[in-house]
């Protein structure tokens, strides 16, 4: 790290965030601005009304250089007086003391050692992690305080920490998931311009699987009319199975405020013929219509079964199911996988049905 070449911006109020230490730009991260803050708290409590299957999260970064056009976390940048588009991608808040604060919170007698989820808001292995290296301290704090945790990422930097995570999994349940939605190189770079390639992410899945992790791949969001063809889904599931993943979680695109404007602007620009269809699909809700989601399940589930994977729709996914160690996890999931496979196979419609065009939309 050539710290001498970085510049510190003396611009008070450049970002509206508590605990701001300094704002930094550096040649290694062109177009990026890092706002380094001292956080008072590392653990975020998920609101009780949330449907999330975990109660605690840790987010070392706000904003994300992976820059996915569909990212539902974009709206959170509004609270920093930054925009939900380019600012979200390029102006990243870094909680430089997150590991120390987390360790102090976990050491409190009242901490119940509940599951902690990482990567549910912004990506903990985005590019900034290569500079700040916050995750090893976070993982160490969680393990020292006997706290089970899960990580969801698109970042291949996860590989750096796999040995540490393998040791952690000897002590506490550790659930690893890689998000890989797009299996067409040009489309992937257009939709997720700051992410590692699909091939690099699949190689990371393989590296984790080789260490004994039962990795989940998030095949989501499935983009209507862009990545929901049988051909694309077959390529996806074949690649995922070959990479050694154990499970797939899939789900159709959500367009919440913040992501909605940014994504539809991208559709208008890149795929204008789809613009009316998208506006109709998402006219009444941030979620794809039920009929589309059911159609997608009928298309994906049989393909998943054919590839020997276990699948869950995103609303069914729960990373918090307790596992005391990798061996117990393997036995439990082998049993679950067998049951799920049987069910999926029974439910699978005919090939003609799943190959049919989505005429409902
Ligand atoms: S990797 Fe996740 S958090 Fe980052 S931009 Fe993409 S969807 Fe958002």
UniProtKB/TrEMBL annotation:
Domain Radical SAM core: 50-293
Composition skew (Polar residues), residue ranges: 319-329
Xref: SUPFAM superfamilies: Radical SAM enzymes (SSF102114)
UniProt KW ATP-binding keyword: no
Comp. bias regions, Basic and acidic residues: 331-355
Keywords: Iron, Iron-sulfur, Metal-binding
Residue numbers spanned by region Disordered: 311-361
InterPro entries: Elp3/MiaA/NifB-like_rSAM, MJ0683-like, rSAM, rSAM_sf
Domain of life: Bacteria
NCBIfam families per UniProt: rSAM_Rv2578c (NF038135)
Listed name of the protein: Rv2578c family radical SAM protein
Species of origin: Brevibacterium daeguense
